[in-house]
Amino acid sequence: MHVPNAPGILAERLGAQLLAGTPARDPAAVAGRLLAVQAQDLQGARLAIRARTSRLTSARIDRAFSEERSIVITWLNRGTLHLVRSDDYAWLHSLMGRLAASTNTRRLREVVVSAKAAEKGVAVITRSLAQDGPLTRREIGERLRAAGVPVAGQALVHQLLLASIRGLVVRGPMVRGQHAFVLARDWIGETKPVDRDLALAELASRYLAGHGPATDRDLAYWSGLPLRDARAGLKAIGSEVVERGGLVSLKGQKPASALAPPRLLGSFDPVLLGWKSREPVLGEDAPAVVTGGLFRPFAIVDGRAAATWTIRAGDVQMKPFRPLSQRDAAALKSDAKDVLRFLNLT
User: Fold this and answer.
1) Using CA atoms, how far apart are residues 254 and 15, in angstroms rounded to an integer?
2) 295 contacts 267 by C-beta, under 8 angstroms
C-alpha cells in the first residue's frame, strides 16, 4: 500500500486535523471537524481538544458535556469509545452502533452473563436512568447488583456496551468528577430513522474534511466499516472530491499556510488513528509512542513525533527522541505550561 511521506501531504493532513492554521472555537467545533475523537482515555480526548483550540480549559469541556449538551461519548468507530457532537450521534450510531455487537455477545458469555441476565440488565439500566439519571458507572453497577444482575470484572462494562449498541444510552454530563450515563432520547432528543446511503456519503465527506488527503482504505480503517461501505460513501460524493496519486481530498480544501507548530498531544491522539499508517508522523520512533494497544502522550515538531511526555509531581517531563533545537525546545516548554494551565495544575 502507498504510504504518503511527502511533507506536503502531511502538512495538509495536519491542517485538516486543526493542528495547524486557525484553531477551533470550542469543543463541539473540534468534534465537528474530526467527526469522532478516540475517547477510551478521557484525558487524552480532552488534550486532543486542547491542542486544536486556544486558551480553553478542561472545565470548558465539562461545560460542553454537562450544560451545553453539545458533545457526548459512546461506542462507535471500530466498536470503541469516541467523542462526537450530539448532532452527529444519530447518523453515526446508525452506521457504527453495532460494530462491537459480536464482541459484546462473546464477552458477556465469557464473564458469565446469560442472555436472560443481559436483557434484564438493559431493562434495569434504562429504568434507572429514566427514574434517577444521570448516573455514574458505579451507581448503575449498584442498581444492577441489587437486581441480581452480574457486574463483576468486565460484566458491568459489557452491560453498558449492550445498552449503547442498542442506542439507548450515551455518556453525557460530568457528575462529581465522573462521566455519567444518560438515556440518549432524554439527553439528545428523539431521533428519526437514517438513510444508510446518505449517512455513508456524510461519513465520507466529513472524514475527508478532518483527515484528507486519504484513501478508501484509510476511511475503512478509521471507521471500522467494510471497505465496500467506505468506497460507496466516497463514490456518492464523487463530484465533491479530487484525486491525486491515489489520495482523495475535498475540492477547494486548502491546507494551512504554515506547518503545525511544536505541540504536546495526549494519549490516543486522533493524528495517530485516522489513517492505516502512522509512519508519516511516527517514523522510526513508533515503538516509543505505540506499544500494542497503548498510545502514549507525545510531542510533535514539524509535524513529526519528537518526544514522549508525562506529568509527574505537577510538572511536564519530556523525553526527546533526539536533541531539539533551542527554538523547538522553548516552544514545547511553553506548550507544556499550557497543558498544566488547561488541566488546572498550575
Assistant:
1) 8
2) yes
List, edge to edge, every strand of the sheet that includes 298-301.
Answer: 263-265, 298-301, 304-312, 315-320
Rounded to whole angstroms, the Cα distance separating 37 from 52 reads 12
Q: Render pLDDT for 69-94 as a digit per residue (tens, 0 to 9).
A: 999 999 999 999 999 999 999 999 99
Phi, psi of 195 (to 5 degrees): -70, 125
User: 74 and 32 in contact (C-beta within 8 Å)?
Assistant: no
Q: What is the pTM of this model?
A: 0.95
Alpha-carbon gap, residue 345 to 332, rounded angstroms: 17
All three cell numbers of 335, joined, read 506548550
Q: Is the dihedral of CA 325, 330, 336, 338 positive or negative?
A: negative
Q: Give the 3-state secondary structure percentages of the chain, helix then strand then coil, rounded to 5.
A: 50, 20, 35
Asked if residue 66 lies in contact with residue 170, where contact means CB atoms within 8 angstroms, the answer is no
Q: Phi and psi for 169 in degrees, rounded to 5?
A: -130, 155
Task: Name the nearest CA neighbour of 272 among 255, 253, 285.
Answer: 285
227 CB-near residues (< 8 Å, 6+ apart): 216, 217, 220
Q: Is 79 left (phi over 0), alpha (psi -120 to 50) or beta?
A: left
Is the CB of residue 74 less than 8 Å from the CB of residue 36? no
What's the pLDDT tens digit per position in 269-299? 999 999 999 999 999 999 999 999 999 999 9
